[in-house]
TrEMBL record:
This is Uncharacterized protein. It holds the Pfam family DUF639. It comes from Cannabis sativa. Keywords: Membrane, Transmembrane, Transmembrane helix. The chain crosses the membrane at residues 532-549, 603-629. It comes from the Eukaryota.
């Protein structure tokens, strides 16, 4: 074994300083700390003897030492997290720890110095002697500003996410990359200490602010129920509930279990209306437009719908311009709803594991509040800080949720830096978890997630898919901004009779009338098996003739002198349908022209397979199989015991990731284009 002083020579200056501070925090000497680390490091290293003999301390050793020492020291900081955040020691130490993890050895530090010097040579050119005095002054000020920023130590994404695996206060390992992108969007994806310190202080401030909020009237919160957001008070923005044509202002409170609305009374608030997200029923929260007397004029509200309610609960967040408040509330409520769906879907019955997931969700919402306060001029996307709303949205997100559910079984909720422990030590009301330390006898130095290899792989894959999907969706943005002409409005008006028929087919397909569905399915199978398709078409034509004769007898033609199309009618639906049709046609064209090679390859393979099936199997059996599949997959029995949501989600993600060919509208086609 080597001594601590010999080891520190191979570390970078920041790593050297961090290791010594870790030893001071833990209360042992550096030599003892290094010896503890080496006893476990070399036991797990197959080439330990050779590495010791040659005195080779590579990246693995240096970074491993920083991780080990940092893990022990951070655990001590978390024991008194409420004090260390207030005095700034937690921010300073953890930021230096991330710097040390990023630059653990002398080789890393030297490489970073060389890269910075090269960037400065490429970026900053000496001012010309002929420049005017004002230009010289401006250039010097700009140069000094950038030199100040570049000279300040900064942290990258990998170090930030790694720290999230130790302490979930600043970020969660599952969405740390997305959080980092939002925090560093204006600083070239580098996190500087002033921003990091400000973020931590805003987290502490938001947590204390939420603890001071009043409990809704007539409600007794559970021991593990925590208030996450409140609006509609005298010191905050208005919240209005719409019931038919009437509007009721009041106070809206969100917890990790429910949403409470209290209508404003003469003196105080009335008893709260509770929307319970923890119930295992069909429920959803969606955006909706509201206005005077129910007119859909202002898109600034949300609607809650469930199988227990005949009418949805509409809550509006009035704003002059944007719908930022509505989007914020929508993201928060969907996050809580998706949390309980996650616990139900993956059958998380253990109270300790369930509360750990609650605690991580609570911290993610608090981080979102802190980021919104920190970035007031440009509020971040709420889903980038949340867990379930994020992975419900991005491609392959359901795979990540599966890995999160698996990681809960191997996590250590009693760890001093876990989400539940942090909330308890920051004086968050929670009685259920008070006996957790008695149940967890062995704490991990790695934090709440030890085995995160498969989880990291799923997250990285989801991020790659999300970036590809974002690029594809960007190609359709200009198409969704186009308007709608009168001819299109006439077309949509003429198609209304067809739209009225579709709900009837949907009733049959969704087994809303089982007897009718069985008759239709049996008839379709019989016609296909007996090869009576021609006779079926003949019956349909006779039915059309009968309908025309009926219309003539009722003199419908004499009464229908014109078709009236109102310009004041809702154009949003028609516009959206036409835009989706255009986008669908452009995506199909992209596939056939191999503008999207990966998708074109998949389509070609599918078409070849389909061609082989059609060539081998008689057509009538294929049609019968499709009929049975459609009716069986929509039956309640299949929906209860089977789960086809994964396949539908994969298909939607695949479709959304197809880029479209750009469209340019011109007054006249150029001669070169027309000739080709």
């Amino acid at each position: 074994m080597t001594t601590g002083n010999e080891i520190l020579k191979h570390l970078s200056s920041i790593a050297n300083d961090v290791v010594q501070r870790c030893a001071l925090t833990v209360g042992i000497s550096v030599e003892e700390l290094v010896e503890e680390f080496e006893s476990s490091f070399f036991d797990n290293n197959n080439n330990n003897e050779e590495e010791e003999e040659h005195g080779s301390y590579g990246e693995g050793y240096s970074r491993g030492l920083v991780e080990y020492c940092g893990g022990k020291a951070v655990k001590e900081f978390c024991q008194k997290i409420d004090q260390t955040i207030g005095d700034g020691s937690f921010a300073r130490f953890t930021f230096d720890l991330m710097l040390a993890w990023e630059l653990p050895s002398q080789a890393h530090q030297q490489a970073r110095t060389e890269n910075i010097g090269k960037e400065r040579e490429d970026k900053y050119m000496p001012p010309k002697a002929t420049m005017e005095q004002d230009d010289i002054s401006f250039s010097i000020q700009t140069l000094c500003h950038f030199l100040y920023v570049d000279n300040e130590p900064s942290v990258g994404e990998e170090a930030f996410v790694w720290f999230g695996s130790l302490v979930v206060l600043v970020t969660d390992v599952v969405n740390g990359g997305f959080t980092f992108e939002s925090l560093t969007a204006s600083t070239r994806n580098r996190l500087h200490f002033p921003a990091y310190d400000k973020f931590l202080k805003e987290i502490d401030k938001s947590m204390k602010h939420l603890q001071k909020q009043e409990i809704p009237c007539g409600v007794e919160l559970g021991d593990d129920e925590f208030i996450l957001h409140v609006e509609g008070t005298a010191s905050s923005s208005r919240v209005v509930r719409h019931i038919g044509g009437t509007s009721w202002p009041g106070r809206l409170t969100l917890t990790n279990y429910a949403l409470y609305f209290e209508a404003s009374g003469v003196i105080s608030y009335e008893d709260a209306l509770k929307i319970d997200f923890s119930k295992n029923i069909e429920q959803s929260v969606k955006p909706i437009a509201t206005g005077p007397w129910g007119a859909p004029l202002f898109n600034k509200a949300i609607i809650y719908e469930s199988s227990e309610l005949t009418d949805g609960i509409v809550i509006e967040f009035p704003e002059l311009t944007s719908s930022t408040r509505r989007d914020h509330w929508l993201a928060l409520t969907r996050e809580i709803l998706l949390l309980h769906q996650f616990l139900s879907t993956f059958n998380v019955k253990c109270p300790i594991q369930a509360w750990e997931m609650h605690a991580r969700t609570i911290l993610s919402i608090i981080r979102l509040h802190a980021a919104r306060e920190m970035l007031k001029l440009s509020p971040p996307d709420p889903t980038k800080f949340l867990i379930f709303a994020l992975f419900d949205k991005i491609p392959k997100g359901d795979y990540v949720l599966e890995k999160i559910a698996e990681s809960l079984k191997t996590a250590s909720p009693g760890h001093s830096c876990s989400a539940s422990s942090l909330l308890r030590r920051m004086n968050v009301r929670e009685a259920m978890i008070s006996s957790l330390e008695d149940e967890v006898t062995k704490e991990s130095l790695r934090g709440p997630l030890d085995n995160i290899t498969s989880l990291e792989s799923a997250i990285n894959k989801a991020r790659e898919e999300e970036k590809e999907s974002a690029v594809a969706k960007a190609t359709t943005t200009h198409l969704k901004e186009e308007g709608i002409t009168e001819s299109t409005m006439v077309l949509m008006e003429l198609l209304k009779p067809v739209k009225t028929v579709l709900p009837r087919f949907q009733e049959i397909l969704m087994w809303e009338k089982p007897v009718t569905t069985l008759n239709v399915m049996a008839s379709a199978l019989m016609i296909t098996y007996k090869e009576w398709v021609g006779k079926g078409i003949a019956v349909f034509l006779f039915w059309v003739v009968a309908y025309m004769i009926k219309a003539r007898r009722n003199r419908l033609g004499e009464r229908c002198n014109e078709i009236v199309v109102s310009k004041s009618s809702d154009k949003s639906t028609s516009t959206r349908e036409m835009q989706e049709a255009n986008i669908a046609l452009l995506k199909i064209q992209s596939i056939f022209l191999s503008k999207a090679p990966k998708h074109a390859d998949m389509v070609m393979v599918a078409l070849i397979g389909l061609g082989v099936i059609v060539a081998v199997i008689p057509t009538k059996y294929i049609i019968m199989g499709l009929i049975l599949y459609c009716f069986i997959m929509t039956s309640k029995l299949t929906q209860k015991f089977g789960n086809n949501q994964g396949g539908n989600r994969r298909l939607k993600e695949w479709w959304d990731s197809i880029p479209v060919i750009p469209v340019r509208v011109v007054d006249k086609v150029p001669e070169s284009s027309s000739s080709t």
